[in-house]
Task: inverse folding
């Protein structure tokens, strides 16, 4: 269950591969939208109506969630209403800030990303805010990990011909050895990216990279978990909300919403006929994305 903490697309980076799209507000300044009560109220409604078993309530969003200065309040609010653990997906770029570290200290699982340990590649692939320094980011990840009492996984997204060379992998492995995550998750460009030069690695290359990083590394991507099939109210609205944030396959939506794939497929067909969504073909799969403008 994901909670979106930032408006699209507000981030410290503008990664080539981002499934949400190009960053329109690149910033390192935290903000307070005073929406924590609304976010927690929506979660309470979901928990009261859904029988879906949750592994985590995940703080993420259409950009970098730690830019939201209400992060700690939201984590505490989630923990007050459910025993489900809280995870935070972050790009890790603000972990040198004490207020951000204290916020994330409240989570059960923190999953920062690190796509390269080479400054030139960082600027090319992640297109960071000018104030960000890669060496400082890696050092902050290691320092946070050293004291964090919860689980800490490191996500590395590999892009063909950009950060998958032997030199890149060696540098990333050395950085990971400094950070000492519980788990390394290797990912690639599974969904349509913000920019077309971001291309996925093939499964064999990903598997080889996992072997290179060692026994704590695994290949992840997509939605593979089995979920209970449940009926969903307002399915068209819920689908539009999801594909408005990032492109999804039919199976992605079925898994995320705990709805039979055939019902999702029928709803997608209707939404497409009404001109509310369109299809993007990527890596031999059809992804659905909400149209920015709807027909009059």
Result:
């Amino acid at each position: 269950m994901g909670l979106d903490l930032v408006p699209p697309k507000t981030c410290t980076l503008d990664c080539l591969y981002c499934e949400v799209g190009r960053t329109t507000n690149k910033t390192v300044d935290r903000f307070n939208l005073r929406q924590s009560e609304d976010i927690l109220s929506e979660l309470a409604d979901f928990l009261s109506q859904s029988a879906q078993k949750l592994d985590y309530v995940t703080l993420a969003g259409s950009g970098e969630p730690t830019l939201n200065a209400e992060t700690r309040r939201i984590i505490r609010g989630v923990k007050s209403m459910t025993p489900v653990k809280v995870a935070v997906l972050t790009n890790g770029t603000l972990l040198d800030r004490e207020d951000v570290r204290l916020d994330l200290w409240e989570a059960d699982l923190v999953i920062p990303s690190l796509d390269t340990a080479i400054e030139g590649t960082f600027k090319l692939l992640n297109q960071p805010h000018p104030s960000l320094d890669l060496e400082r980011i890696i050092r902050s990840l290691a320092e946070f990990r050293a004291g964090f009492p919860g689980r800490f996984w490191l996500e590395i997204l590999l892009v063909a011909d950009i950060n998958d060379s032997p030199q890149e992998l060696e540098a990333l492995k050395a950085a990971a050895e400094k950070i000492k995550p519980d788990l390394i998750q290797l990912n690639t460009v599974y969904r349509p990216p913000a920019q077309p030069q971001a291309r996925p690695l093939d499964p064999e290359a990903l598997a080889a990279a996992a072997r290179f990083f060692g026994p704590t590394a695994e290949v992840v991507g997509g939605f593979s978990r089995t979920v209970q099939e449940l009926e969903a109210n307002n399915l068209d609205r819920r689908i539009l909300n999801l594909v408005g944030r990032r492109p999804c396959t039919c199976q992605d939506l079925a898994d995320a919403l705990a709805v039979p794939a055939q019902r999702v497929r029928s709803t997608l067909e209707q939404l497409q006929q009404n001109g509310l969504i369109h299809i993007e073909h990527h890596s031999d799969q059809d992804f659905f994305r909400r149209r920015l403008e709807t027909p009059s």
Q: What stands out?
A: The domain at 235-290 is CATH 1.10.10.10 (Arc Repressor Mutant, subunit A).
